[in-house]
Amino acid sequence: MTPRPPHPGTTPLAGAPRVPESMRAMVIDAPGGPEAFRSAEVDVPQPVLSEVLVRVVAAGVNPIDAKTRAGRGVSPAISAYPAVLGFDFSGVVVKAPYETHPLQPGTAVFGMASFPRTQGAYAEYVVAQSLSVAKMPAALSHVEAAGVPLAALTAWGLVVETAHAHEGQRILIHAGSGGVGHFAVQLAAYFGAHVTVTASGRNSAWLRELGAAVVIDYTEMMDSAPAPA
Question: Which residues pair with 22 in a beta bridge?
Fold first, then answer.
């Protein structure tokens, strides 16, 4: 009887880079300040089903990461310590689910880890669902790409899925030069909305380049505000 061949994805694909059994990662043993991080050797996560394994080149740091490290954020969902934190990443695929998958080994990608359900991105390798990963635009560096996913998806949810940005609509965006804000400005302008933002005056020209029609300098508003009685 001829043995059944292994299911695609259970063995390394031809030409795929060798993946070590362990990797370096920044872990925390308990919630705390930035000093809670330490470098450690941990097992490389193993992808299953539609997941891809990515060699991390850069990882993003968002407010939710700092809150989680401090014991807030999504820390209640961390099942065990030491824990590897981090959502956003960019890198190169080293293991794909199957031979015809669109994200083959060697593909530059960026995306979000399913932390805390899986290990986070503050490590040499990370596992992520295929639907949470996309090919990295050639115009971006890995450092730039690693700062995109969480902020851009937040802006998309607010501007496109909730506000339904469209021509003739007027949208006010506070903190337009912030991480989420500058994506929100671009998305709203792209869909034809008239965009007004609040920001400091030094960012006015840049925000207009991104698509803002009106930039309100909040620092001038603060200077002109009447003193409290």
Answer: 43
